[in-house]
Amino acid sequence: MNQEAPVAVATTWMATEASVIKSLLEGYNIPCHYSSVLPQQVNPLSLGRLAEIRIYVPAALEQEARHILEEHRRNGHLHLVES
Hints:
The protein is an alpha+beta fold and 83 residues long. It is globular and about 30 Å long. The protein has a single domain, classed as Alpha-Beta Plaits, CATH 3.30.70. The protein has helices spanning 15-27, 62-74, and strands at residues 7-12, 33-36, 53-57. The protein starts with 6 loop residues before the first strand and ends in a 9-residue tail after the last helix. A three-stranded antiparallel sheet has the order 1-3-2, covered by helices on one side. The chain has two helices and three strands, in the order E-H-E-E-H. Helix content is 31%, strand content 18%.
């Protein structure tokens, strides 16, 4: 069993965009999850880096996930902060 820690492949400040990214990657059979320092339900206002939402994938799938996200970014479908 692979015990490598998940890797952050994208960062956003919007929970809706994080959800879209998660669905996109899962559509390519890449399991992922996202997390934030601050719960969005508690404070939905942007607080800079404190409000970042990071999307994580298994380390073994990092390059594939980054490639998929870059293709969608290049086509104007995603507007992500560089992670």
